[in-house]
TrEMBL record:
This is Response regulator transcription factor. Coiled coil: none annotated. Residues 148-213 form the HTH luxR-type domain. Keywords: DNA-binding, Phosphoprotein, Transcription, Transcription regulation.
Amino acid sequence: MIRVLLADDQLLVRAGFKVLLDAQPDIEVVAEAGDGQQALAAVRDHRPDIVLMDIRMPVVDGLAATRRITEDPRLPEVKVVMLTTFELDEYVFEAIRSGASGFLVKDTEPEELLRAVRAVVAGDALLSPGVTRRLIAEFAARSKEPAAADALSGLTEREREVMALVGIGLSNEEIARRLVVSPLTAKTHVSRTMVKLGARDRAQLVVLAYESGLVRPGWLG
């Protein structure tokens, strides 16, 4: 059973999501929160698998709440997906930097919401190639030089190659086709790379790929 916490200051948004999620045999909404402070308390009390977190909330906003969750060593398994009104939300970049596993627009199709919840719990990140382009563009604008790649010294050449492909937004299936290996092998390489680097998920691999200089602006065209 996938345990979900809904954090949004709009009651109708929470109610709509709850009805949809609770109707699924493998998903259960275990708690709700109307602001970031309530969300933090609920996460600590219920230890959900995933938090659907609105970016803009009173008391403590979604970005600050996400940072506190992802930095808490007692909550390593909790994944956060940010809820935004527009795909081009100016805070998407900061959301990923804060440790979010991705984002969803609030008017997403019901089937897409369900797929997203299951995908994030399975270890995937909700980062489309278009979002990845914007993230790397933001890094390029904000950073003068990439950090030293010492953090990648423990990776094999194949793991570096796989990390670079994750960094430009490829899925496991796309990586498998690029490297002419099975999807399971690609997934194994991704998982090992995440473990070695202490990354929570693929979204963090994208950040690390750029910060280390493994991925540079312009790779995505």
